[in-house]
């Protein structure tokens, strides 16, 4: 009989503990995902490495620059240039820095347009195996619009620049595809009516 009592007590208290844990998560909310880091221009994010999107202060490389499409001869389809410092901080698995690791998302009136892949992204230089011993390296990532998908950013738009440090090292493991860094910025009208990312 005492065994039955203990079993019932255990189940009762286990259920109460489960309800308490579930209830506390509703009150506290979820924190930042440890595999998805978020910042703004000038922020240094850490995820399998250290990554800084330059803001152009001091002697640092330029802040993100947007150039609108033009209809002149030759026509251009819009571009955005980002200067990023990347440093690998893990010993065993290097980082990848190529056109498949980046994406730019522009949200205009709740409509999202993504720019990714070799038709939109150019990385200089491209390094497939940036190791810890290489130290911090600077990269220029240029996002270009195309005739079929112009890169258009207007004042009030929300812009997200993303980097996946090991997207191609997954070997079928989806864990690396959900690990990425995002720099969020807003588009505003600057001098000479040019769009500025802040």
Automatic annotation (TrEMBL):
Pfam families found in the cross-reference section: TAT_signal
Organism superkingdom: Bacteria
PROSITE patterns in the record: PROKAR_LIPOPROTEIN, TAT
Entry-linked NCBIfam families: TAT_signal_seq (TIGR01409)
Descriptive protein name: Twin-arginine translocation signal domain-containing protein
Organism: Faecalibacterium prausnitzii
